[in-house]
Amino acid sequence: MVLQTVEILKNEIPFEEESVYISEDSKAGLVLVDIINGFCTVGAGSLAPREPNRQISEMIEESEKVARVFCAKKWPVLAFLDSHQPGKLEHPYPPHCITGTDESNLVPALSWIEEEPNVTIRRKDCYDGFVGSIQEDGSNVFVDWVKNNKIEVLLVVGICTDICVLDFVCSTLSAKNRGLLGPLEDVVVYSRGCATFDFPVSMARNSKDLLAHPQEMMHHVGLYMAKGRGAKIARQVSFIM
Ligand SMILES: [Zn+2]
Predict the structure, then answer these.
(1) Per the domain annotation, does 108 fall within a domain?
(2) Residue 73 falls within a domain, yes or no?
(3) What are the tens digits of pLDDT across the range 16-54?
(4) What is the Cα–Cα distance from 44 to 226, expressed in whole angstroms?
(5) What confidence tens digit (pLDDT) does each residue in 88-118 have?
(6) Ligand 1 centre and the CA of 90: distance in Å?
(7) Domain range holding 172?
(8) 241 C-alpha to center of ligand 1: Å?
(9) Which phi and psi angles does 10 have, rounded to 5°?
(10) Of 119, 147, 222, 233, which sits 20 to 30 A from 171 (CA to CA)?
């Protein structure tokens, strides 16, 4: 049997996924990373998918499901929205998700959360939502949100698994290990609630500046890296009410 490259990779750097149960007593918080048109809606911008993408569609569906549960329970939700000032580039990416355009807004399936009283929206202009939460006075919107809500379990979903989701998770785990995040115990990355983009090597060969980014492989690598830093990777998230 000839193994596909992605299967070889999964055999070489495997990781266990678990089923995570969240109950009324869990003190859970949900973080949605960049589930915005500019990264998720077909044709919505320079970094948006060019055609419908199964991994991205599933990520949106699963994220919406968990957001519905959190909002019904009035549990805390924080949504990061990548939003850049015009003319201020984010190296090495082309201009994207400019503030005030629809690219930087939540996808239609999630736009309703903006009206929910338990939801905090944080526009950020860098990959890492933890760094993007630093305000001019030095305070941090994310750190304050975790502490004020006494969050013990953080559930993370969004895009891209190996970029903004991973960077945020790594910074959060570092901060937690330093004791900066109060009662926070577990950072859970919900794998089916995450996605990344697809840029196969066959396309990257034609471009001297862009790195190849095969979707299935990089999604796996992102989860693997998060797990290596101490996150839990959940294949299944169940709510016990
Ligand atoms: Zn950006």
Answers:
(1) yes
(2) yes
(3) 999 999 999 999 999 999 999 999 999 999 999 999 999
(4) 28
(5) 989 889 999 999 999 999 999 999 999 999 9
(6) 6
(7) 16-240
(8) 37
(9) -65, -30
(10) 119
